[in-house]
Design goal:
This protein is of the alpha/beta class. The chain has five helices and five strands; from the N terminus they run E-E-H-E-H-E-H-H-E-H. The protein is 46% helix and 32% strand.
Length: 111
């Protein structure tokens, strides 16, 4: 899994590429916790390049979302497609998180 970041408006866009599973999810969690500790507050997580997500990946998203909210920030998810969208819907994450069709749409909602 690769994680790329880019500052856009007042948000940090985090692009996740590859697989988010028991092996790689801790890397995602660690990276986001570090970014929060550095003072980042608002996040758009772009899953356009995500090929697979396991329950460990879902857990890491939930843990980091709670940390973002505890720091007074906001999180929005973008570009969740196909099988990944089905997993989000089945797990209930589709109702927990703000899911957007594009990064631009997510950025406009976080403001």
């Amino acid at each position: 899994m690769k994680i790329q970041t880019m500052k856009e408006r007042n948000c940090l866009v985090v692009t996740v590429v590859g697989r988010m599973d028991a092996t790689t999810a801790p890397n995602y969690e660690k990276k986001l916790i570090e970014l929060i500790a550095e003072g980042e507050k608002n996040f758009v997580i772009d899953f356009n390049g995500l090929e697979y997500i396991s329950s460990s990946g879902l857990r890491s998203i939930h843990v980091t979302a709670k940390a973002i909210k505890a720091a007074g920030g906001k999180i929005a998810l973008a570009n969740i497609r196909n099988v990944i969208k089905e997993i989000f819907d089945i797990s209930g994450f589709g109702t927990i998180f703000q899911i957007n069709d594009s990064v631009e749409s997510a950025l406009s909602k976080i403001g």
